[in-house]
Design brief:
The chain is mainly α. It contains twelve helices and no strands. The chain has a domain of 143 residues: Cytochrome Bc1 Complex, Chain D, domain 2. 51% of the residues lie in helices and 0% in strands. Helix 1 packs parallel to helix 2. The longest helix has 27 residues. The structure holds heme C. Heme C (HEC) binds next to helix 7, helix 8, helix 9 and helix 10.
Amino acid sequence: MTEIPEHLLKRSRDRRAAAGGSSESPGTEVATTKDTAPAAAASTTPASTGPAPRTAAAAPSEPPPPKPDSPVVAAYRARRKVPFWAMAALALLPIWTFMYVRSVTAQAEEASGPLAMGAEIYANCAACHGGAGGGGVGYAFTEGEVLLTFPNIEDQLRYVLYGTGAYNVAGVEIYGNPDRPGGPHVTGARGAMPGFEGALTDYEILSVVCHERYTLGGADSGSEEWGDEFEHWCSESSEYFLELEEGASLATLHEMHDGILAVGDGPASGSPAGAD
Ligand code: HEC
């Protein structure tokens, strides 16, 4: 027979007292506790309308089911991740872009003079005026057509700078030669010509206008009619082109030189042949 230490017996007695039972003799203490515990459990189980504290106590023992992800989180988890090797390629992208732009620009730098540059810049115009200047949405430049509209290069520069929208707002109806054979070209009659001020630099605008007049339009740079204009505006030694490259402005170029018409800082009516 083993002796049960006093402190264990006391603990057992205390538990029973807490459970509402009366204290009994130490000898039966352990056995009684064992017997009554299942009985107590069994007695409460059938009571479906059991006391609230019991159900509340049972709830935390069951782990709550995991909350389903929101569609956003689910999509984020299921996303295709960028493979690590592609990160290297992505990191190099800015350098690639820089090199690409350099390679395109370097070509433009090699070609010297307004006509060479203008041939490149004309990429901005070809969609509407045709790659060879034969026309499309916009007018043709070929076979002298552009020279008929603009006997003075300044009027063409102004028109390309500011475009149909600004001419409409300013109420300028005839942007080119008012005495044009076959009738003047009227603002908006053919459609909308975008203004290129800001999109292209002033010297780029001069270069593309030179391309339209001399390469596409057929002006003869050696002729008496066009030789002077060509020398000053469009030749490789064009002083106006150089000044624009150095930061002068088309709008105020006439203030620096005698004998040229004002391009000005906004739309103006076109001039007849021989105006400058
Ligand atoms: C989105 C199409 C479009 C683009 C791009 C475009 N143009 Fe035009 N262009 C037009 C249209 C349309 C007209 C006729 C405008 C009108 O009727 O007022 C025109 C007219 C002109 C004229 C007057 C021709 C004439 O004989 O009356 C010139 C010069 C001109 N464009 C030059 C250029 C240059 C230079 C570029 C490129 C830097 C360019 N255009 C890009 C559509 C375009």
